[in-house]
Amino acid sequence: MQRDTKQKRAILKVLTGTRSHPTAEWIYNEVRNEIPNISLGTVYRNLRLMADAGDILELDMCGAVSRFDARRDNHYHFRCERCGEVCDVDEPVHQELDEKVAKVTGFTVSYHKLVFVGLCRECPGTPISKS
Ligand SMILES: [Zn+2]
Ligand SMILES: [Zn+2]
Questions:
Q1: Which of 3, 49, 78, 90 falls between 20 and 30 A from 116, CA-CA?
Q2: What structural domains does the chain harbor?
């Protein structure tokens, strides 16, 4: 569908233009500059479709709202538990972990996803204590 393609293109443009791993809501606000009458539901639907198609990554933030990433290769992330900032971690994916887990469990491992959690450079102080 023509309209869907235009929406997808606008969403992808917003997503490739940022390194902040934005939420759907943030993307929605940016895309509205280009398509003022687009709805949040439409943005969500397109993000899902694009994630299913493998065009983008949907990052599962363990209970927090999903983030989206235009970088499609497997890579690690860091999430600040104070400000919520999500960024890429410059560390190669440890493929040997997959083999190790496959050996221990007998499962077939396709890949693993990793999110480091802590405090970013802008959020100094003591880590938030787990209750
Ligand atoms: Zn922070
Ligand atoms: Zn990323």
A1: 49
A2: 1-72 (1.10.10.10), 73-131 (3.30.1490.190)
Taking only the tens place, the pLDDT of each residue in 75-86 is 999 999 899 899
The residue whose two tokens read 């934005």 is: 22
For residue 13, the CA-to-ligand 1 centroid distance in Å is 26
CA of 117 to the centre of ligand 2 (A): 14
CA–CA separation, 85 and 20 (whole Å):
7
86: exposed, middle or buried (Cβ count in 10 Å: 0-12, 13-18, 19+): buried
pLDDT given at position 56: 94
What pTM was estimated for this model as a whole? 0.79
114 alpha carbon – ligand 1 mean position (Å): 18
pLDDT at 69 over 80: yes
